[in-house]
Automatic annotation (TrEMBL):
Record membrane topology: Multi-pass membrane protein
Transmembrane domains' residue ranges: 25-48, 60-82, 94-120, 140-163, 211-229, 241-259, 271-291
Keywords noted in UniProt: Cell membrane, G-protein coupled receptor, Membrane, Olfaction, Receptor, Sensory transduction, Transducer, Transmembrane, Transmembrane helix
Higher taxonomy: Eukaryota, Metazoa, Chordata, Craniata, Vertebrata
Role description: Putative odorant or sperm cell receptor.
An annotated GO cellular component: plasma membrane
Single GO biological process annotation from the record: cellular response to lipid
UniProt cross-references to Gene3D superfamilies, sorted A to Z: Rhodopsin 7-helix transmembrane proteins
Annotated G-protein coupled receptors family 1 profile domain residues: 41-292
SUPFAM superfamilies in alphabetical order: Family A G protein-coupled receptor-like
Entries under InterPro entries matching the protein: GPCR_Rhodpsn, GPCR_Rhodpsn_7TM, Olfact_rcpt, OR51/52/56-like
Single GO molecular function: G protein-coupled receptor activity
Record protein name field: Olfactory receptor
Length: 312
């Protein structure tokens, strides 16, 4: 049987950037910088929210959840991406690939759910400020966090089993430096209709619905803000949403770009597909801590105080 057993290969071969194999080693340095920013930035925000009593508020609890999902996403992709680009070590065991696929898709969905929860937080804060403290209690925030986490793991749980039941015999070469469900199922020499239908169902029922409700929440926020008489008060209210809007754009724009290129860009060079997929995975974890540190003075002050205490 050689490399393959009855149902699947013993390992997969990961791919860096097709056509740029000779120069991809030079991408290792910027990748390391991005990982350092993602891991360091999100860890700092988590510690700042934990250590600073003034940040023990719903908005910052949701931000710490966002940082946790970004941190987990970075850790899930880091081993294979750096091995592929730095050491040209391209092999990954079949089971390890399934685990990585499960983690990447789960934490990506978790981030989408947290962004939706944060939009609800902004909606209540602006549209019904008098009830903000009574609506978003610690129990409600904990429940929302558990609901987002449970949805992610329960929805993605069938994917490894859907892949495991497929005989993979066309090839064992994946298109990326990490494992994704669409990439793995395309290597099967069997009917992948169930995988495709379930993948589409997951995409529409989670990411699609999250984006729709985020959009609707901002329609209601804008309607409420436009009713404010003072221009300064309107700008002040909208300014509290800027960080969240940028985080939503950083997450969904690369995702929509990747989906569009995968579905309609058949003649686009493969390295463009790979670069866009890497942007989708790397941009949110890198940008989110920078966005919130730059745009939220309370976070900035907490980080400065934290580093001052460490220095002392």
């Amino acid at each position: 049987m050689g490399l393959f057993n009855i149902t699947h290969p013993a390992f997969f071969l990961l791919t860096g950037i097709p056509g740029l194999e000779r120069s991809q080693f030079w991408l290792a340095a910027p990748l390391c910088v991005m990982y350092a920013v993602a891991l360091g930035g999100n860890t700092v925000i988590l510690q700042a929210v934990t250590a600073e009593p003034s940040l023990h508020q719903p908005m910052y609890y949701f931000l710490s959840m966002l940082s946790f999902s970004d941190l987990a996403m970075s850790l899930a992709t880091l081993p294979t991406v750096l091995r592929t680009f730095c050491l040209n070590a391209r092999t990954i065991d079949f089971d390890a690939c399934l685990i990585q696929m499960f983690l990447i898709h789960s934490f990506s969905m978790m981030e989408s759910g947290i962004l939706l929860a944060m939009s609800f937080d902004r909606y209540v804060a602006i549209c019904d400020p008098l009830r903000y403290a009574t609506v978003l209690t610690n129990e409600v925030i904990t429940g929302m966090g558990l609901a987002v986490t449970s949805r992610s793991f329960i929805t993605i749980f069938p994917l490894p089993f859907l892949i495991q039941r497929l005989p993979i015999c066309r090839s064992n070469v994946l298109s990326h430096s990490y494992c994704l469900h669409p990439d793995m199922m395309k290597l099967a020499c069997a009917d992948i209709t169930i995988n495709s239908i379930y993948g589409l169902f997951v995409l529409i029922s989670t990411f699609g619905m999250d984006l729709l409700f985020i959009f609707l929440s901002y329609v209601l926020i804008l309607r409420s803000v436009m009713a404010i008489a003072s221009r300064e008060e309107r700008l002040k209210a909208l300014n509290t949403c800027v960080s969240h809007i940028l985080a939503v754009l950083a997450f969904y724009v690369p995702m929509i770009g990747v989906s569009t290129v995968h579905r309609f860009g058949k003649h686009v060079p493969r390295y463009i597909h790979v670069l866009l997929s890497n942007i989708y995975l790397f941009v949110p974890p890198v940008l989110n801590p920078l966005i919130y540190s730059a745009k939220t003075k309370e976070i900035r002050r907490a980080i400065i105080r934290m580093f001052h205490r460490i220095k002392m």
